[in-house]
Amino acid sequence: MSYCLYCHEPYSEAWSWEALIGLKQSPLLCQDCEGKLVRIKGEICRICGRDFSVFPEQYRQDDCCFDCIRWEENDTWTGILQQNRSLYVYNDYMKEMIAKLKYRGDAEVVKAFYPVVSSEFKRISRDALLVPISLSEERHYERGFNQAELLAGGLKKQVESLLKRKTHEEKQSKKTRVERLSQKENPFEVVDSLKVKGQEVILVDDVYTTGSTLRYAAKVLIEAGAKEVSSITLAR
Amino acid sequence: MRFVSLFLNNRLTIAPETLVNDSSLKAVPFFELPMVEQPPLNQTFRYDEKLQQILYGKQLLFDELSFTVDQIQLHYENGYVKYSIGISKTSNGYVCSRCGNEKSRLFAVFSCFRCKSDSCAYCRNCIMMGRVSECTPMISWCGPKVRWPLENNLLWNGELSSGQQLASQKFVEGIGSEGELLIWAVCGAGKTEVLFKGIEKALNLGLRVCIATPRTDVVLELAPRLKAVFPNSMVASYYGGSEERETKAQLVISTTHQMYRFKQAFNIMIVDEVDAFPYSYDQTLQHSVSLAVTPKHFLLYLSATPSKTMKKAAMNERLPCVKIPKRFHGFPLPVPKMVWGGEWKKRLERGKLPATFLKWLKAQAESGRRAMIFVSSVSVLEKLIELIRKEVDVPVDSVHSEDPLRKEKVIQFRNEDIQLLLTTTILERGVTVPFLDVAVFGADHDVFTESALVQIAGRSGRSKDDHDGKVLLFHYGKSLSMIQAINHIKNMNKEAGL
Ligand SMILES: [Zn+2]
Ligand SMILES: [Zn+2]
Ligand SMILES: [Zn+2]
Ligand SMILES: [Zn+2]
């Protein structure tokens, strides 16, 4: 008998040969919780990695979504973020889980995703720098941890905290898209430019919502000399 | 968070690191501090009354208070506030002093930015109320007591039934002394009114009273009623999202969860629907109750369907008990009828309804009367509603625990915009609608325990103008629970002399 890492209900694992001989890690979530999460599979946006199966057809052009096209059309942002890949659709259940992690401070929740994170991103370049999106000092203290850093910890790879957030986060959701795009000052700065120079960087964050946070972070890294920047997030 | 220990006015004391500008002092996580004596109460200190009001009888976190660390520390130094450890190590793990959790699987460690420890342990059981970790101090009040109004007059002149009268009297007798009492009142007996006299007496003795209930809806329904009958008293409701959590209150109506925030606060604790708590009458509930009450206290349990443990305790006279077997309107409880429904599960899979059920359904639709139809699971619910819609042409809808429109649908049902409401056991309690019949589809299923069936049957016949509602149990073989529920109801009617 195991207990679900998220809802704490007892559950019995589905019996399988792979699990028995240790090929497959035992699941950390019960079937109920697992069933409420939707993995991103199949057709996705080439850039932001959004799942096209849950996205209206009229807002895409070939393999790219309109949001990404708009970003790329803007000279300031062209090619700044190479690509983003996310594991899960940001549905209500995922929202609930991330809220429990971030706002209630239940750090352990992130571990439910470790098996998927590590197997899914097994193939990422060994030389790439893994950089979590940082929180401002105040927010970091308030939360007690940085969820992006915890998530990056699941990748079994050295994590480099090379970003610093200068300004206190405002609620992104309270701003309109125009406001978000026109945000003049970049909230991030690179802590150690030397480390970044000529490197391939992979940013890690919990959610890709509008893509602006990741792009601001990518921009300072590119300006500091990074060769290219891509990102991975838990949900999109 | 981290604290430093330092000498101040010749005493060893502690202070949050952020308030001390001395880098020679070593900051350590709160739980690693040496034991220091609580500063003596400084009588001349002008304490903040708002802080007193909020903290009195509670145990809160810095994060839960709208006061600055500075202000709180000042009250600590003057002996008005106490800091205590939230998570302590035990011989085989940890214990959370807020919720009492000791299960090791409900603790976790994380690399904590507040105390810089890479394995700061925290409790996952009560995380919904904010994280308590090893480095989190719990804050409580140890200054002067809050003063309550001297006169708390009961503004109510309704009449009690003889059963209510008896129970009310027993409760009143208990006020002022230590003890326990179970009021075993049938659904529809009118238990709220039974509490009035006892609460009045308690308030006038300067005692603090809490009514704890498992459901937010009950808090929302009880609070205005109690405020109306105790207009001169300080009454507040506590539930997730409540705005009265910082108001001064001698009488608190709270959900069980919110009780975790109180510490040694209540002289009288009334536990409503004691058998319906998320974990029923178990250790978690006992623990949160035991933390929230003062060392000397009176505990009152209310239930229409007490658990086996409670009934046994009552029978052995370990737990004083008074029954209210008669409904307020004086008519007997409707006794459920068992109806053979055949292999309802198989039929459902084949897209067919049991003949007896179909016959009842058509007659019910024809009659224009409302009915609640209880089912064992969401999957049965979904199949059944489809078939019902094919058979009858009246407004039909369904609810289950995760239905976001649950509240709205119950209102629609009350307003007769829905005639037939299919539901899982989620609505077995609380919904009181006059002119209503009840059917249980697949009553032999395990989820329909004796108490569930008694509660379900208790939905019908609530009004004196329609005291004789029907309760039908469609089954594929009588279960023990069905028989026990029917006997339970018959016995209650017998005890009521009906
Ligand atoms: Zn689960
Ligand atoms: Zn895109
Ligand atoms: Zn706890
Ligand atoms: Zn800590």
From TrEMBL, chain A:
Give one Pfam family, short name only: Pribosyltran
- Please report the stretch or stretches of sequence annotated as the Phosphoribosyltransferase domain: 144-235
InterPro entries in UniProt: ComF/GntX_DNA_util-trans (IPR051910), PRTase-like (IPR029057), PRTase_dom (IPR000836)
The family classification in the record reads: Belongs to the ComF/GntX family.
Query: Know the name of this protein?
Result: ComF family protein
From TrEMBL, chain B:
Q: Name one GO molecular function term.
A: helicase activity
Known SMART domains for this protein? DEXDc, HELICc
Domain Helicase ATP-binding: from-to ranges: 172-324
Keywords, ordered alphabetically: ATP-binding, DNA-binding, Helicase, Hydrolase, Nucleotide-binding
Pfam families assigned: Helicase_C, ResIII
> PROSITE patterns, alphabetically?
HELICASE_ATP_BIND_1 (PS51192), HELICASE_CTER (PS51194)
Mind telling me which SUPFAM superfamilies this protein's record contains?
P-loop containing nucleoside triphosphate hydrolases
Which ranges carry the Helicase C-terminal domain?
A: 357-498
Write the protein's name. DEAD/DEAH box helicase
Q: Which organism is it from?
A: Fictibacillus norfolkensis
